[in-house]
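step=encode ok
step=design start
structure_in=
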C-alpha cells in the first residue's frame, strides 16, 4: 500500500471496520470516544469527509497515516513521521483492510446471521491492573500466577473489561482485544474462557515491519511465551488465534501481507493440529517460511500445561490425548 492509496480511505469507514462507532454525528464531523483511552464524553473528532482527525484529549491530530501509526504502536504521535514510522502505519492499514475481505470458505446464511449478534455487550475497558489495593496483587494477576504466567510481562497486552451478560448483569474479565472490536476474555471468578463481541483474531505489531511473526492458538499460551522468552516490547509481530475455528480469519488477514517468517505454537490435540496444518499449508503456498516449537512441550496439549507440570501447579498438567 502506498501513501496515496491510504489517503483515499475515509477515516470514518476505517474506524467502523476496526469496531469504533461514532457517538454523535454533527453537520461538520463524527465524534467518537477516544480509541486511546476510556472516556464518557467523545473527544475524538473526524471530519465529515473522513480526511482528518483530532483528539481533543491530547491536542494531536492528522490524517489516516498519523492515526494508523498511533493505533499500531500505542505510542505518542511525534511532530513528523519518519520513513520507518510511515511504513509501520501503511502496514497496519493494509493489515486491517485485509480483515474485511470475505473468507475462502462460505458460511451458511444461518451462521452469517448469528455472527452479527454478539453474545455480550462491552461497557468499559481499561489497561490491565496488576494490583487491586495498595501492593496486593489483583485477582486476575494471581490467577495468571497460578498458571505459571508472569502477569507483569503480560500486562502491556491485556485489558480489564466490564461487559453485560445474557440478563444485562454486569460481568468482569480480562483479556485481549481482537480485530473486530471484541475481546477474548477470562471471566473473573471462575476464569472461564469467554468471547465478548464478535470473535476474531488478535494482532500486535512489531516496531519494524520486517520483524518475524509468532503465532499462538490461545491467550494463555501467548502469556506463557512472554513469561519464558521475555521478548522486549515491539520485537515481534504477534498473531493470536483465539479459537481453532478462526483459522480462516487468520488466513484472510495474512493474505494482505508480504511473505515473512512465522513461528507457531500449536496445540497437540486433534483440533489444534488440524488448525495448525491448515494455516501452515496456507502460508507455505503463499511463500512464507518458519516452523513450530511444539518440541518444547511434547507430550502435553500446549506449552502452558507443560509449564504447569514443570512448576507443580494445578493438576500437574494433563497429557495430550487424555480427557
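sequence_out=
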Amino acid at each position: 500500500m502506498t501513501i496515496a492509496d491510504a489517503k483515499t480511505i475515509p477515516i470514518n469507514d476505517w474506524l467502523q471496520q476496526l469496531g469504533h462507532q461514532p457517538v454523535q454525528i454533527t453537520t461538520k464531523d463524527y465524534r467518537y470516544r477516544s480509541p486511546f483511552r476510556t472516556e464518557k464524553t467523545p473527544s475524538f473528532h473526524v471530519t465529515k469527509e473522513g480526511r482528518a482527525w483530532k483528539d481533543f484529549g491530547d491536542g494531536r491530530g492528522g490524517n489516516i497515516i498519523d492515526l494508523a501509526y498511533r493505533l499500531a504502536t500505542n505510542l505518542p504521535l511525534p511532530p513528523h513521521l519518519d520513513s520507518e514510522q510511515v511504513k509501520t502505519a501503511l502496514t497496519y492499514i493494509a493489515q486491517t483492510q485485509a480483515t474485511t475481505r470475505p473468507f475462502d470458505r462460505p458460511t451458511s446464511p444461518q451462521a452469517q446471521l448469528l455472527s452479527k449478534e454478539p453474545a455480550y455487550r462491552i461497557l468499559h475497558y481499561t489497561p490491565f491492573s496488576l494490583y487491586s489495593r495498595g501492593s496486593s496483587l489483583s485477582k486476575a494477576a494471581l490467577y495468571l500466577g497460578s498458571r505459571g504466567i508472569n502477569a507483569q510481562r503480560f500486562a502491556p497486552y491485556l485489558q480489564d473489561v466490564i461487559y453485560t451478560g445474557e440478563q444485562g448483569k454486569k460481568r468482569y474479565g480480562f483479556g485481549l482485544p481482537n480485530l473486530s472490536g471484541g475481546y477474548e476474555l477470562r471471566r473473573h471468578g471462575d476464569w472461564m474462557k469467554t468471547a465478548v463481541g464478535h470473535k476474531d483474531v488478535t494482532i500486535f505489531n512489531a516496531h519494524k515491519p520486517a520483524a518475524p511473526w509468532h503465532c499462538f492458538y490461545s491467550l494463555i499460551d501467548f502469556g506463557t511465551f512472554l513469561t519464558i522468552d521475555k521478548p522486549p516490547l515491539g520485537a515481534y509481530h504477534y498473531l493470536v488465534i483465539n479459537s481453532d475455528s478462526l483459522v480462516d480469519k487468520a488466513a484472510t488477514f495474512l493474505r494482505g501481507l508480504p511473505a515473512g517468517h512465522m513461528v507457531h505454537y500449536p496445540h497437540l490435540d486433534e483440533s489444534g493440529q488440524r488448525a495448525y496444518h491448515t494455516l501452515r499449508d496456507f502460508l507455505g503456498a503463499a511463500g512464507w517460511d518458519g516452523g513450530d516449537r511444539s518440541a518444547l512441550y511434547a507430550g502435553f496439549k500446549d506449552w502452558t500445561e507443560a509449564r504447569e507440570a514443570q512448576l507443580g501447579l494445578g493438576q500437574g498438567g494433563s497429557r495430550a490425548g487424555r480427557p
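step=design ok
step=annotate ok -> The chain has eleven helices and 15 strands.
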